[in-house]
Design goal:
Chain lengths: 321, 308
Amino acid sequence: MATDNTDPTAEFRKNQSWLFDSKAGGYVRKTAVGLLTLVIAAFVLFPLYWMIVTAFKTTAEIQQIPPTLFPAEFSLEGFRLVIESSLESSGYDGFVESAFGVEISSAINIDIIGMILNSLKVAIGAGVIAVVLGTGASYVLSRHEFRGKTALMSLLLASLMFPGTAIMVPEWELISTLGLFNTHLALILIYGAMTAPFVVWLMKGFFDDFPDSIIEASRIDQCSSFETFWYVIVPMARNSLIASFIFAFLLAWNELVFALTLLDGQNYTVPPALLTFVQGFNTQWNVVAAASIIVSIPVLIGLAYIQKYFVQGLTGGAIKG
Amino acid sequence: MSYVDQAQSSYESATSRIPESLRVYLPILPVMALVGLFILYPIAQAIYSSLFNKSLLAPEDAEFVGMGNYAEIASNPDIHQVLWNTFVWVTVGSVAAIILGFLMGWLLHEKLPYTSVASAIVLIPWVLPRVVGASIWRFMFNGSQGVVNQLLVTTGLTDEYIVMLGSSELSLWPPIIGMIWRLAPLFALLTLTSLQGIDEHLFEAARMDGATPWERFRHITIPMMRYNLAIGFLLMLIYNIRNFSMVWVMTRGGPGVSSSTLPVMIYRSAFIDFQVGFASALSVLLFAVLLVFSYYYIKFYDKMRGGL
């Protein structure tokens, strides 16, 4: 059957494709879409499901072959071991024993509370640095024309591309030279530097769309440029600022390579600490899963908050979502 | 006088000697100092170090070898395997993540209710701490207790459990699957956002003109999304090529170098073999590839924004 493109009517096209226009085709299509949805959903969600059920299994059940799809016995052993071990390594075991009469002796050695505190320190520090420095720069880059601007923006964008692994060695040397080895300040500065360009791009997208009339109005009301920035623009930029902060926070919370090379065991943030535990001899997977869930909670809260900024941030405000 | 005024007057007195034309650079300086010291300087240092035979244990004994490290890369017996692995990661990993992500984004846009809730859930693999995601996959591919093996046995694909992470023929694939799992949601989100950005009237008009769904897809959806797709495509390539944690957590690049990619090999040569010069030369190689990608990334970015 020859296709006649000159005929503009929809009528003509009907029955050209049984898949799109017949009733049977409709069923085939719906089934295919349904199956596709199921397969994709299973692929995305199953690992998450597996992490959760693993966390609630007993050690004995973890080692069972074949693995059980659902915990036969709902157990908090994994969480208990994580928390006990954490209390023990922070030296609170004696206190808990006398206060609650619970004896703590854990077979594992992972100080999850300590490492979460380390991570919080690093992630908040990096977020504050990136947002404070990045916002000021992005305001100028958005509102003023000056020489070298395009080159600067390209340089900032390009610096986002470079992987941590490739600059790890010079970074290690630099940090040692500065005397910052095994300090959290080193990570705060590096993560701040890694996310500041990102914040510049995200905030520039915001400032570019910021209406001139508001700034002019505040000029007429005799606000200085500082006052305009602080009292008028910053409050309106609140959401973008929070999103920038969370981006920086998440990067710092998740980063492995620098934390692994620039810190010693007792100062570890979450990712390297979890890594040593995962790769340790005779890994107890219910404990790993429990620890994983605990350290993922801040991330998921952050995600819920910034979900709508996510794409905007990735493409630097290119898409209005 | 409010603290904002105080800040302004102290800013003005501090900068009074700086010419007006240069003052505009001042707010940019701190960022550039930070990025310059901790990102750009290390990049330059890596390029410089790649010309020396240098050990991490005794960096002061560095010996200038010119292109020697690059010659060593070319003759290294492991490098072909590693480059091939990196290539497989980038092509297979990116293509699979793109197709899967596109389908996910399309389903979220057209077929699923509660799009915002569903897309938040779908995004979880992407935002989860890298080590957490990789650990889950490591456990699922575990040789003795792993659920993947059980699935293969149940479906009759294999007779017995395979120690995939410890096998030099198979160890490359589990981390790639993990990475597809992590990256596809990101591409899905990009797809979803750009689908939502297309004006419905275009489809309406095309329908009136009698365009089939395929033609509408081919002539409206794809062209309207092309910059977003280009950015997404480059992001997939970049994330795959620089991925370290998925490989390192799941296999440590082993056994041998069977699952090592370029970043893993850099890490191993620097922090296990202490060969800083060699590692730096590998880094330069990685930079070169990424520079090409970032050139296109910036170009497409430019097009979308209409100039920087």
